[in-house]
């Protein structure tokens, strides 16, 4: 190395060299420390320093630079290098130092004194007797002292941790004896190396040496060394190597434009590390196991993969953590990616592939996630692993869910390398078509055609294509599934209706659920039924009949009968289809027996076809919908909340039709529970725009309308409810029980003062409910109709609603009807009746957990009781309103004038007058004056 003397330096020594090796880049501070030590030594006292760092961090370069600085400053420099292969050679390092001191050139003009040869002082074997040891140690000290008397001395030992024990004793021996001499001792050591010999590092360097810790280079110096610009690439190079100069040198030799730094490595580096680790028991095997397992490197798996017992593995891990080769974590990993890649690059391809397959099996047996197992299977190429196919398919499925279709393509491509049956190859090709569809939509059709070419069994082919439709249920995915199913159906059609029916059935449902407009013509589809003989086909036919009945809104009894037939066997696929499930659960919510059967069918051990949906989610959602319909709001909300959390974790709350339905149901239940903040928070998390292509968006729109109407935004709520209605009508949905938008739109219209619109909506709702005939739906429509009427007809409708709902399981709907009836009775002056009705309403709504409704019923009950108490103060028991109406009538006002003055309907005025006549014992209004006068006289008396 070339150095320059800087005459301006107060030390009078060298400046920092202009051209540096990687190990000296960015080491100005460390070199300044060395310079300070040299100055201190020139003042006549001994100083020492220890340079520590990881493998390849530039310790040797630093020691060489320190020696050159010392030589330029007039020091006699002796540098020794210890190595693993010479550790057993007694005095090897000491002899190197003696030779450096005894062959040092003398000052010009001064005679060279005769000094003994190194072999005379340090024999090949350590002295045996105590006297021989003392003489040898003293001889070494005399050599150092003699050199120090001639001028300052610099002693450097590289890799002191590898020095032989006798040389270490020599250094420890002179440490105290040269304290008043101009001697600098610089030792380099691997960080974390355990001193297991008789001489410790501090005994050679002293208790307070200057410690120079070498760390990785910064981005600027990395860029300078690699001759690249400072920027993102330089930062990535620093990240993968930790700025380690030795690793950077290996990287620079392989650096090419556009290279993938995540996979960059050097087999030479791997070989060096493997050789260096040989001195530690089982360390090379554990090192390879850590590199193979990567982020899956748990302690137990490391030991198993390395083929060593846990105690041995722990000892090897401890050693490599201390030397900073492994991270200090619960899951040890190689400190830098470049090192891991280098260890892997050093492994023969076959050895690496077999070890990766063993790692995959260990992870699989330990219950690791399929995608983690799959990552290792990708590296186990050219090896047949039959059990890996199903794992790779599951890993591919999860990758698509997580938004990484490229990884899914890799998993499936690896699966295709195995020996496969035609059936399984066809299934994998279809799955691959879906994954590639997310990467490049134009490539998917070719994969589908390739899959069709592998059809060797019609039934299996129909099953696989049906599974694809069930798996791909939203957005563009659904269109891919429908188009693929059409190609399969065309190929299978020659096999007769029984062969193609299941596929046609699912295709029809997928079409119906993915369209924003009217579904396919059911009558066209009906022509496929006649030749059906297979029991499963007839069962699915019953399901479609039920669906058509629901969509037409014609007869609850017929729909229930068809659903019962569809549930008579074990064919869960039909009920797993999102569109079918959504409408079936809404229609069966009032049928406990069929709901239980549905949940049994759905509650299977296998994973759902739809990879968005957690296992058991459909049964949980169906139970929640039934609980909601029955008025058990708290339990229903628990079911919905648990599912929404799972959908949130998968990141599909706005993409999966079932997830959207679940979120909408939870919003609606939260409104009924009075948990408006929960409903608002959930609605904020849903990407409303992303759900619009899904049929279940209708329910979400309905739920948002209810929330807005309940939280002071009636106009916006009304628009949402009307929008839901328009979409359902456009879709041909006449079933009033899916989302009872008319009932809530009518109530919101009343709140906005739009009485005509409210009456029209209520009338339409009642007509649809009477056609459908289910008690909960009919009772709710009767309640709405009663709300928009103030006359005797309103009370009759509400009374009928209570009667209809009283025999059903719809407790919340009954509580609503009781509340509205009680309020109307109180308004009509029937306080005694109102108290009884409202008492039942308050109890029922509280039992349901409907706090807003319970609060309204309780307030109305208090008002009714107050009104009843006021009425009893009157001798004839007239209520306050009855007395007011009777008094105005006795003064000659007509019923119309009284109604306008008191803001009542004429029918209400007539009801109040009839009540007053009865209580006063008179027959008409001509007797009112005298009857009221007698009452007043009695009060006065």
From TrEMBL:
Record-level GO BP terms: regulation of DNA-templated transcription
Any single Pfam family the record assigns to this protein: GerE
Region: Disordered, residue numbers: 1-21, 103-129
Annotated ranges, domain HTH luxR-type: 871-936
Alphabetically ordered keywords of this record: ATP-binding, Nucleotide-binding
Any one GO cellular component localisation term in the record: cytoplasm
Keyword S-adenosyl-L-methionine applies: no
Source organism, top-level taxon: Bacteria
Entries under InterPro entries matching the protein: AAA_16, P-loop_NTPase, Sig_transdc_resp-reg_C-effctor, Tscrpt_reg_LuxR_C, WH-like_DNA-bd_sf
Keyword Nucleotide-binding: yes
Segments traversing the membrane: none
GO molecular function list: adenylate cyclase activity; ATP binding; DNA binding
UniProt name for this protein: HTH luxR-type domain-containing protein
Record organism: Amycolatopsis japonica
